[in-house]
Give the backbone structure.
Amino acid sequence: MQALITTSHWLARLGQLVAGIALLALMSVTMADVLTRLLFRLSAGSINWSVSGSVELVSYLMMFALLAAMAANIEKSQVVVEAFSHRLPEAFKQRLGGIYLIGFCVLGVLMTLGLWQEAASAARRGQVTQDLRIPMGPIYQFGAVLCALLAARSLIHVLLGSLFATEGGGANEQ
Amino acid sequence: MSSEMIGGLGLIGLLVLLVLRVPVALSMLIVGVVGFAQVISWGAAVSMVKSVPVDVLSSYSFSAIPMFILMGVLAAHSGMAGMLFNSTRVMCGGWKGGMAIATVGSCGVFSAISGSSLATASTMTRVALPEMEKHGYARSLATGTLAAGGTLGIMIPPSIALLIYAVITEQSVGDMFAAGLIPGLMGLLFYALTVTVVMRLKPELAVPGEPSSALEKLKSIAGLVPFFTVFVIIIFGIYQGMFTPTEGAAVGAFATLLYALYKGMRMAGLWRSVQETLALSAVVFFMLMGAETLGYFISVSRISFSISQFLGGLDVPTIFILLLILLMYFVLGMFMDSIAMLVITVPVVFPIITMLGIDPIWFGILTVLTVELGLVTPPVGMNVFVIKAMAPHVKLGEIYRGVAPFIVADLLRLILLLAFPILTLWLI
Amino acid sequence: TTLRMSHFWPDGSGINQEIFQAWADTIEEQSDGELSIENYPSQTLTQADAAYQGVVNGISDIAITAQGYTAGRFPLSQIVELPGVSDSASQGACILQGLYDDGYLESEYDDTKVLFMFTTGPGYLHTTDTDIQSPDDLSGLRIRRPTAVAGQMLENLGAQPVGMPAPDIYTSMQRGVVDGLSFPWEGMKVFRLNELASYHTQVPFYSLIFVATMSQRSFDGLSEEQQAVIEDNMGMAWSEIAGGVFDGLDEAGKAEAEEAGHTIRVIDNPLEHDDWAEPLKAGIETYLDELEERGLDNAREVYQAAMDARDSCPVQR
Ligand code: NA
Ligand code: NA
């Protein structure tokens, strides 16, 4: 059990690192875009430092940030409805929560497969982003890795929750 | 089995899963995927799961949500939010429910900026909820106010929902926004009145503040300065055309970050705020992914399409059909995302409206108001979910209980708008 | 048999009614009701940029989408988007479908069964309060760019291209985040932008291209008679119908601006015009060079074929 907790902890740290950098980059890209546009306007068009492509950069950075954040926080991010279950013992809720996390493990696996296939097809077809013409293949591949992280951490917490009644996501009840 | 029947069974299945304590996001995902598979095929359903979540997570217009959450978190950690509410508390003095009314007002201003209900609910919850709790407000009242306040974003221009309605039905966007102004401001007023009425009926939900002198009130204005500076930067920037509302979220977060750094926040503190933002965003986006998947299932089940067609064929007075259509929106709104609902049903319903000679702009406002109710009605109420994400210690049931009086207020507003079309059409 | 058809145009739009629903009705009629088409407008089945892949993956049986939504996936087809290739939607549809029929583009669609292709009319310049008479007038303006290639050309002209999703244009223009945009007349009407722009310069920056395509698997699953009905309704005939519908919408969009008393400048023969030719040609060259760098050695051949087809494809029919 301790090995599982340690592994989960380090995978979470990894996800947090990726997500944090992506989120700050997302904010910085938008700020850079807004500021260079302002400069362009104030100089009546003579200073043009802006680069197009902030829309797509923001989209993909957000995808990375959220996928990584979901992976890092999977056992803490579920909202449940406590209509009839509030009297259940805590340990039972943890086991139940852990079992339901299987759903996210499956989701993570399917998303990994989906993105991996997209990556292969994008690489084969030479698909690029609209503005900056960045190859889509590596973008999807990185996304697939983050989805795999989501699947892996879900699986660990399925085990922790269902077998040891701890960190199964059940504590986050309403 | 007809696809409509599968649709109906799916929605019942959703309720069962929720009762069984399956996470809300997962319940919507399961029903969406299994239902989609029944209507179309398992292969198609698996393809959908592979692509839809990724589409949601990389949707540019959603990028405002994590940025506004970051802004709220930084405002809380830098003391900006605390100062704001301290000031409003002093200004309200001994007035009961004053902070709840201040919250409604702030939600109105904020939604006018962001154009997004989810962003409004998430930011304002982070800022206002801890302060209201600290000052003895019942959780149900506090979160109910926030959930309702968040819906103001749909009607007060600029509004994504009104824009979409105008484009679908080929109305002037300018007219549509103008028409939304009075009903939107009515919403503000009605919510404030709701707080007052609730205070009368259930005084135990809030403790009155300490009375304060005029001088104290004057002095307290200083506490408003940082927060309103950020507000003004965002409003001014958007109305001056320096950035779009979506970009405004990042600008707001950045401005708040500068303030936090000035107040002594260091790298470690910033990183903690970023991680807190990400954890909150994860909760929200898990549910958005679920809602989107469920939406595709409802779309292919053609439930809304069939209902609209059925209503169009009825031989009853005009006002009756109009009421039935609004009732349909109310019921669908319990399960569906507002924008998806507009996109699917308005094209079907609109020809009926035109045929009956109902004013299209008036109908648009009535529709959007009804659809907006869906954000706070159980079982799928995105605004309520967002607040739950921001405040895990509050029970979902408490939020739904707290929001109930505001739903009554919205129904009253709807009746007034129905009875007096001039309220909508005056400014056009 | 029921076939699911997915696209991003709204249900009530002329494009949906007069092209896609008309096609669906024709199929149902000619198959004596054996085939029925379920129409999913407004991205209610698949998102615009995932629509083509949705057909490949079996989410929908038929999809209509813009090739440009998946950039770099249909590079040769997008040659028809270059300015100066077509002067109207009819001409564009005829050129694009012609290139496909002649086998120039087949390799890009080998995973689906193409039904027909079409284009918008040329995307012109529309500004809120600057009268654009020569390229110099564009300097210092922020223009919403429709495609990366058009963005490149705007930059060559001294403007600042700004990328944003189409639904954001209205409010951005209202508040001056952008000073103008490049759009076909049809889009000006559909997105209500004639409310905001009062100057229009008819110099082409791009045309958007579209494909209606069907899943090969779904097609193979049909009976021979049903397949015959589909095959009777493929290719040039429907490209022409689509072109005609877009032409009509372009006319309506322009009429709206004329009625509102807007200023409309018309640049004839932009590729030979003293002021406009140079930046436009530079943009075209950049795009073709890029394709050649990617190993598409026949890029210039396809471009030449497109330009040659202008003679046999009338601007108005
Ligand atoms: Na708004
Ligand atoms: Na609801």
In short: Chain B touches chain A through 56 residues (CB under 8 Å). Chain B has a mean pLDDT of 84. Residues B 111-112, 115, 153, 156-159 surround sodium ion (ligand 1) (CB under 6 Å).
